[in-house]
């Protein structure tokens, strides 16, 4: 088990570049299954989750070649439609191959996926949508089998705007006969990136980024391999912005799409964080005391649940009391106990956390329970007095590419220790 040893108290200064989006790369890799040929994905982040998806594709029979941040995927040799339980349990997003395999081969068999234990993320919306496209679904002994001789377009209304369900249904509908309409669809930028990728491939999709997406089905022969550049990771970029704010630093975050960060920027502005927005970069200049703000996580374009822990770290040092309400995942306050070890004054009541700002945080021996909780603890440690040890940083590696090297280049003092 690897850990970070962090000596806090340094102001971060300099330029930091955001990597490509993890949450966009994973569905793009899955979407490669839909065509029989070699597609190329540029700016893919070198992350554990991306490596797991590559392993999954190779398990199915694809040929995958990775050169730094470029991934070539040749899916012409895929034959298997059954995914091992081990691969599925290693990452939640492994379920994204369901729609693509069903769309291309008419059959898929897999176990239930794993991933961070931050709350319930049921598969029912995914399976309901695939059923409405004509798939026969069988759930037995912890496995899901989906089969369809022919997928047909349908009018599908999601009970919740689930990102994963929207992406799975979208990929399957590309190969369905007729027109499919997904209503109450998730609006995240990563879904827009998936639409753009699939349309390059030959799909006919409109509406991504709104709550209604329409897909006109195409034949296998209409789909061709393509090259595509992944959008920047808005959650990584947001984490860097908060890192600059919490250390009262002077940091320019490059390779960003400011529009994707507007929900976070609105709260940073309210919290008295000074920043300047450029075309593809944002500069944060720490300007003293943070003000307390209230936050409620919502589906995009609301405040992202993936930025809630990082903002809690910042608000733990704010002037006043903040209330953070989590509406997406019921177990996303696991970082609270670890922040309390560092001197934070936080009380959880149901799905809300009451954060009373303190003058300072102190170093402690703490543990990352999941990806974003781990990122939040790194930020808290950067601002804390003395040293902090963060155990189980493998969680952090799932979503941040060389985080300690990026922050050390800004003046942080982070050492990765291999046990």
TrEMBL record:
The protein's annotated pathway: Cell wall biogenesis; peptidoglycan biosynthesis
EC number: 2.5.1.7
The keyword Cytoplasm appears for this protein: yes
UniProt: phosphoenolpyruvate binding residues: 22-23
Modified residues annotated as 2-(S-cysteinyl)pyruvic acid O-phosphothioketal in this record: 116
Keywords of this entry: Cell cycle, Cell division, Cell shape, Cell wall biogenesis/degradation, Cytoplasm, Peptidoglycan synthesis, Pyruvate, Transferase
Top EC class for this record: transferase
Reactions listed under catalytic activity: phosphoenolpyruvate + UDP-N-acetyl-alpha-D-glucosamine = UDP-N-acetyl-3-O-(1-carboxyvinyl)-alpha-D-glucosamine + phosphate
An MF annotation (GO) of this entry: UDP-N-acetylglucosamine 1-carboxyvinyltransferase activity
GO CC terms in record: cytoplasm
Compartment(s) of residence: Cytoplasm
One BP term from GO: peptidoglycan biosynthetic process
Catalytic residues of the enzyme: 116 (proton donor)
Domain spans labelled Enolpyruvate transferase: 8-403
Major site of localization recorded for this protein: cytoplasm
Binding positions for UDP-N-acetyl-alpha-D-glucosamine per the UniProt entry: 92, 306, 328
PANTHER family linked: UDP-N-ACETYLGLUCOSAMINE 1-CARBOXYVINYLTRANSFERASE
Job description of the protein: Cell wall formation. Adds enolpyruvyl to UDP-N-acetylglucosamine.
Family, similarity comment: Belongs to the EPSP synthase family. MurA subfamily.
Protein name: UDP-N-acetylglucosamine 1-carboxyvinyltransferase
Organism listed in the record: Pelotomaculum schinkii
């Amino acid at each position: 088990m690897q850990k970070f040893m962090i000596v806090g108290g340094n102001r971060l200064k300099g330029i930091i570049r955001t990597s490509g989006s993890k949450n966009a790369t994973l569905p793009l890799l899955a979407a490669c299954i839909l065509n029989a040929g070699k597609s190329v994905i540029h700016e893919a982040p070198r992350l554990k989750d991306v490596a797991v998806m590559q392993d999954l594709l190779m398990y199915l029979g694809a040929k995958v070649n990775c050169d730094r941040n470029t991934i070539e995927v040749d899916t012409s040799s895929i034959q298997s439609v059954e995914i091992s339980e081990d691969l599925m349990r290693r990452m939640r997003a492994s379920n994204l191959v369901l729609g693509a395999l069903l769309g291309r081969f008419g059959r898929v068999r897999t176990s239930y996926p794993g991933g961070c234990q931050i709350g319930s993320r049921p598969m029912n919306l995914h399976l309901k949508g695939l059923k409405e496209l004509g798939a026969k679904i069988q759930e037995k002994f912890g496995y899901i089998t989906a089969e369809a001789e022919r997928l047909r377009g349908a009018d599908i209304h999601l009970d919740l705007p689930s990102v994963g369900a929207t992406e799975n249904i979208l990929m399957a509908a590309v190969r369905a006969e007729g027109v499919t309409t997904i209503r109450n669809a998730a609006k995240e930028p990563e879904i827009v990136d998936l639409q753009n990728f699939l349309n390059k491939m030959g799909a006919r999709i409109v509406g991504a980024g709104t709550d209604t997406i329409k897909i006109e089905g195409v034949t296998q022969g209409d789909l061709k391999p393509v090259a595509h550049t992944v959008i920047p990771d808005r959650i990584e970029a947001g984490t860097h912005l908060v890192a600059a704010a919490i250390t009262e630093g002077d940091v320019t975050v490059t390779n960003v799409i400011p529009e994707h960060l507007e929900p976070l920027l609105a709260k940073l502005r309210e919290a008295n964080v000074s920043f300047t927005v450029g075309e593809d970069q944002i500069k944060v200049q720490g300007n003293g005391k943070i003000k307390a703000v209230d936050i409620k996580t919502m589906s995009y374009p609301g405040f992202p649940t993936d930025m809630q822990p990082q903002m809690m770290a910042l608000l733990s040092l704010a002037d006043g009391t903040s209330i953070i309400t989590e509406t997406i995942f019921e177990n996303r306050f696991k970082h609270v106990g670890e922040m309390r070890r560092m001197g934070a004054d936080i009380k959880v009541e149901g799905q809300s956390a009451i954060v009373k700002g303190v003058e300072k945080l102190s170093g402690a021996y703490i543990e990352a329970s999941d990806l974003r909780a781990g990122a939040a603890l790194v930020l808290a440690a950067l601002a804390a007095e003395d040293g902090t040890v963060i155990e189980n940083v493998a969680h952090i590696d799932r979503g941040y590419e060389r985080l300690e090297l990026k922050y050390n280049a800004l003046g942080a003092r982070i050492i990765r220790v291999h046990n």
